[in-house]
């Protein structure tokens, strides 16, 4: 069945940088010109896109694939005021992944065993990177079909169903809302964990300086800088914070390795394989660590040279190679060093009386604090258009929404009892779905109209990834909730 081409429902905006998005959907002026052969060329005065619409004998409108470089090459039709360079995007990529998740890797290895954790992390890193490639490639294909310069994650899901099997087309709008819901849960969950992580490590630092304060007090003091930072609306303007965060995170990890590599016990001192009952917690923590799926399309959509994003030696592969190697190393040596005493953040295992340990806590706290704004960017691009359209002064309403959302993350961070288990819960619920289930499903729906001779292998491969992600979702969520309700050890909570 050939895909049908029609205008995408615009109720969900694209995930664009507000300073890069020049299109105003409410004020577009459409000019129609009827050609001699009965073709109507529809163009927008505010858009670089041109769609050729053929009028059939019955008067039906059917979009064609001719007439513009945009449809042949969707990235050529992007007009950005403040595009990001490859280095900018790489910094954002590292910043979006080198957060609290990497510091929880020793705790993840504790739930899997030394060798299961190591090889499992490598395998899951490869699968997650492959799914990121699938998402970007499907976005490009669907941009060609619909004559759009770029699409958000939710719009990619909508277009995949809308041009896929006939039975799936009525579900397109619901699928878009589902993706946006998972994105909101994941990104706000990341923001809550980031917030709590910074507060816990600042508390440890203040204890070292002889000024003991409750974590709740530190959370309150952090409200002002977080609120100010999240008033920034441009992804380009967040590049300096991403650069600072990436440099500080790598510096903090380098110093942390000085502790991890000292007096390492024999590998036989820890379990090579853990019990089946704790593997779901391992899965959830590792999936939480691969937290960059939500920012993949926003980063690619805002690049000056988007073709460099998914090249074999491009930004995505380079960034994820660095990330997976660091994850595996921190998890392996952290678990080998601390064994069953590994906590929800490796910084909490460092000796409290060592100055270098306090420097690590400070560096990682500042790095994660700077990363908060990037994670906060994604839910704002979903919430701002949906909320501000009901207000006359939209800019004022947006700033109010940003402040209210920061306050929401403060409340959620204050009631989180267990940092390690909450990390696993966020990873199992949202990240596994967005990173492992939806991309291969979108790939199948996007390729459905063509169904080439390699279709069977594609179905088998995508189905295996979907099954893997779905199992992780169900078992990881159930185990995390059971641990939370059972009142696990407060490794990093406020109690």
From TrEMBL:
Region (Disordered): 1-45
Polar residues bias spans: 33-45
GO cellular component: vacuolar membrane
Keywords: Membrane, Transmembrane, Transmembrane helix
Compartments in which it is found: Membrane
Top-level taxon in the UniProt lineage: Eukaryota
InterPro entries listed in its UniProt record: AA_transpt_TM (IPR013057)
Domain Amino acid transporter transmembrane residue range list: 82-480
Biased composition regions of type Low complexity, renumbered to the chain: 19-32
Main subcellular localisation: membrane
TM ranges: 112-136, 178-200, 206-229, 241-261, 281-299, 311-335, 355-378, 399-416, 422-442, 463-486
GO molecular function: L-amino acid transmembrane transporter activity
Membrane topology: Multi-pass membrane protein
Protein name: Amino acid transporter transmembrane domain-containing protein
């Amino acid at each position: 069945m050939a895909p049908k081409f029609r205008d995408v429902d615009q109720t969900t905006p694209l995930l664009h940088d507000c300073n890069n998005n020049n299109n105003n959907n409410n004020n577009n002026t459409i000019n129609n010109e009827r050609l001699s052969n009965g073709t109507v060329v529809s163009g927008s005065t505010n858009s670089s896109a041109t769609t050729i619409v053929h009028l059939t004998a019955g008067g039906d409108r059917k979009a064609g694939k001719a007439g513009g470089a945009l449809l042949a090459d969707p990235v050529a039709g992007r007009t950005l005021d403040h595009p990001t360079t490859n280095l900018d995007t790489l910094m954002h990529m590292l910043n979006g992944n080198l957060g609290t998740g990497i510091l929880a890797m020793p705790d993840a290895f504790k739930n899997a065993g030394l060798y299961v954790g190591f090889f499992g992390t490598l395998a899951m890193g490869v699968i997650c990177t492959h799914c990121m490639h699938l998402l970007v490639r499907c976005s490009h294909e669907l941009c060609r079909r619909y004559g759009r310069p770029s699409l958000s994650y939710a719009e990619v899901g909508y277009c995949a169903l809308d041009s896929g099997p006939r039975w799936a087309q009525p579900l397109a709008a619901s699928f878009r809302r589902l993706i946006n819901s998972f994105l909101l849960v994941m990104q706000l969950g990341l923001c809550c964990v980031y917030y709590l992580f910074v507060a816990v490590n600042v508390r440890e630092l203040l204890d070292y300086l002889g000024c003991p304060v409750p974590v709740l007090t530190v959370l309150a003091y952090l409200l002002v800088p977080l609120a100010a930072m999240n008033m920034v609306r441009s992804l380009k303007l967040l590049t300096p914070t991403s650069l600072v965060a990436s440099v500080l995170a790598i510096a903090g990890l380098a110093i942390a390795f000085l502790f991890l590599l000292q007096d390492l016990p024999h590998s036989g001192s820890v379990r090579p394989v853990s019990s089946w009952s704790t593997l779901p917690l391992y899965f959830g923590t590792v999936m939480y660590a691969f937290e960059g799926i939500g920012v993949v399309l926003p980063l690619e959509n805002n690049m000056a040279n988007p073709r460099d994003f998914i090249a074999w030696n491009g930004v995505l592969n380079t960034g994820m190679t660095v990330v997976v190697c660091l994850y595996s190393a921190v998890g392996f040596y952290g678990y080998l060093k601390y064994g069953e005493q590994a906590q929800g953040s490796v910084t909490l295992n460092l000796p409290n009386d060592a100055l270098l340990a306090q420097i690590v806590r400070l560096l990682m706290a500042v790095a994660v604090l700077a990363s908060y704004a990037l994670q906060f960017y994604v839910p704002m691009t979903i919430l701002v258009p949906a909320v501000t359209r009901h207000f006359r002064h939209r800019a004022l309403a947006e700033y109010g929404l940003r402040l209210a959302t920061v306050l929401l993350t403060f409340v959620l961070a204050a009631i989180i009892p267990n940092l390690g288990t909450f990390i696993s819960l966020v990873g199992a619920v949202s990240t596994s779905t967005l990173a492992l289930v939806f991309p291969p499903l979108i790939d199948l729906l996007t390729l459905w109209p063509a169904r080439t001779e390699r279709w069977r292998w594609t179905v088998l491969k995508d189905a295996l990834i979907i099954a893997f992600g779905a199992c992780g979702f169900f078992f990881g969520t159930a185990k995390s909730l059971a641990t939370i309700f059972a009142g696990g050890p407060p490794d990093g909570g406020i109690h």
